[in-house]
């Protein structure tokens, strides 16, 4: 239960104890009068005190009823099996989506320059997501030029979309011993340069959050930069310092996104620094087929909840690919549709904002020689913006 709820209940409990003590004191005085008073009008005195006691008891009863009513708002979710209250939702919505606008032939800077989506393409995407698919909250992953374009397009076209803005963190530690695709240590000079670039990115994120206060509802500092298996690792204490730096500079809430297992095993100190924790759950990457997709995802969330019982949880990534050469028997569009529908229904019931990963397929990702790789096929729409089965009901004639 959130700490503020515990404090409120403790205050009310102390208040009730004081009232009961007052009643007890008055009752003792009255009892002495009943047995030892030698006044001329004992009946009148006793009657007056009885009325006073009745009034006090009525006041306490009303106070307790009010406390019970207020407390029930806090405990209803537990009684009904919900993990969180409606107030824990980000922007009041449970359904959200991760967005990146790269189309075929486009990609971020991989050393030879970026090929970015145009203004018109970005506008088309955002209209698909907000006006056709009904997403009012999106997640973007950095504060660079494409993200600034997204915010600009939303503002200039008055689109009904809010944004979880990202601040991307590059590697400050060489994770070559535990990251499968890092075959040699990251040079120290590169790591030192990344530290400077990360500070620049933080300043960009702060600037955008302040410039687009009416659109940016929260800021995420780092994406999967804490897990052992990724290639852009940053120390936990460093990320905490970055979080505090951002919190001092903006009005919006601040979070960090990472795998559920990291949060469950190592997240205590970081959870104290952020306004809410953002977790990723991917049952298909852990060998689960669709018949276990929902139940295993819930297990992941509950592992975090049990480890961090006071933390407010947002699921910043969850999804199911439609194609994957790595595990073809576990994926297709029907299974993607099933996971989407089941998991969003569960997260809505439990008041957890969930960002589905992701809006559109991105064929620049993963192995360029394998177009069937899972990394390229998480979208609810194909790379050329055609709806997959999960979205086709929106376009039925």
Q: What name is given to the CATH topology of the largest domain?
A: TIM Barrel
The second-level CATH architecture of the largest domain is Alpha-Beta Barrel
Radius of gyration: 28 Å
- Mean of residue pLDDT? 86
Shape: globular
Q: What is the CATH top level name of the largest domain?
A: Alpha Beta
Q: Which consecutive residue ranges, at least 5 long each, have pLDDT under 50?
A: 1-79
Task: Give the total of domains.
Answer: 2
**Sequence of secondary-structure elements:** HHEHEHEHEHEHHEHEHE
Tell me about this structure.
Helix 3 crosses helix 4 (145-156) and helix 9 (290-307) runs parallel beside helix 10. The radius of gyration is 28 Å and the shape is globular. It has 10 helices and 8 strands. The model is unreliable at 1-79 (pLDDT under 50). The chain starts with a helix and ends in a 41-residue tail after the last strand. The protein is of the alpha/beta class and 397 residues long. Strands 1-2-3-4-5-6-7-8 form an 8-stranded parallel β-barrel, surrounded by 5 helices.
What's the structural blueprint in terms of helices and strands?
Elements: H1 3-36, H2 42-79, E1 95-98, H3 119-132, E2 137-139, H4 145-156, E3 162-167, H5 188-211, E4 216-223, H6 236-249, E5 253-259, H7 260-266, H8 268-273, E6 277-281, H9 290-307, E7 313-318, H10 333-349, E8 354-356
Parallel strand pairs: 1-2, 1-8, 2-3, 3-4, 4-5, 5-6, 6-7, 7-8
Helix pairs in contact: 1-2, 3-4, 7-9, 9-10
How would you concisely characterize the structure shown here?
With 397 residues, the chain is α/β, with parallel strands linked by helices.
């Amino acid at each position: 239960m959130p700490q503020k709820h515990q404090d409120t209940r403790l205050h009310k409990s102390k208040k009730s104890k004081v009232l009961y003590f007052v009643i007890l004191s008055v009752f003792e005085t009255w009892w002495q009068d009943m047995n030892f008073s030698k006044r001329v009008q004992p009946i009148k005195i006793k009657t007056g005190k009885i009325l006073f006691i009745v009034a006090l008891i009525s006041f306490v009863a009303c106070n307790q009823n009010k406390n019970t009513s207020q407390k029930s708002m806090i405990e209803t979710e537990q009684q009904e099996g919900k993990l969180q209250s409606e107030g824990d939702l980000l922007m009041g919505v449970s359904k959200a989506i991760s967005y990146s606008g790269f189309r075929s032939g486009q990609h971020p800077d991989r050393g030879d320059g970026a090929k970015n989506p145009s203004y018109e393409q970005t506008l088309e995407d955002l209209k698909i997501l907000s006006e056709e698919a009904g997403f009012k909250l999106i997640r973007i992953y950095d504060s660079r030029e494409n993200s600034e374009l997204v915010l600009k397009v939303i503002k200039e076209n008055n689109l009904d979309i809010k944004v979880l803005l990202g601040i991307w963190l590059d590697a400050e530690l060489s994770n070559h011993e535990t990251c499968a695709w890092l075959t040699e240590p990251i040079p120290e000079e590169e790591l030192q340069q990344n530290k400077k670039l990360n500070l620049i990115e933080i300043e960009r994120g702060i600037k955008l959050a302040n410039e687009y206060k009416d659109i940016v509802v929260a800021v995420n500092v780092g994406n999967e930069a804490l897990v052992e298996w990724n290639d852009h690792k940053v120390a936990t204490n460093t990320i905490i310092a970055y979080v505090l730096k951002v919190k001092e500079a903006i009005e919006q809430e601040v979070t960090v996104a990472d795998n559920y297992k990291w949060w469950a095993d190592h997240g205590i100190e970081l959870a104290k620094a952020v306004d809410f924790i953002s977790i990723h759950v991917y049952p298909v990457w852990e060998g689960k087929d669709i018949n276990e997709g929902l139940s295993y995802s819930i297990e992941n969330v509950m592992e975090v909840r049990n480890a961090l019982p006071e933390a407010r949880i947002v699921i910043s990534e969850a999804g199911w690919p439609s194609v994957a050469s790595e595990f073809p028997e576990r994926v297709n569009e029907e299974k993607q549709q099933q996971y989407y529908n089941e998991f969003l229904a569960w997260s809505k019931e439990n008041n957890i904002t969930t960002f589905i990963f992701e809006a559109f397929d991105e064929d620049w990702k993963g192995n360029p020689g394998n177009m069937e790789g899972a990394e390229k096929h998480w979208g609810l729409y194909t790379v050329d913006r055609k709806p997959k089965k999960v979205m086709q009901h929106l376009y039925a004639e």
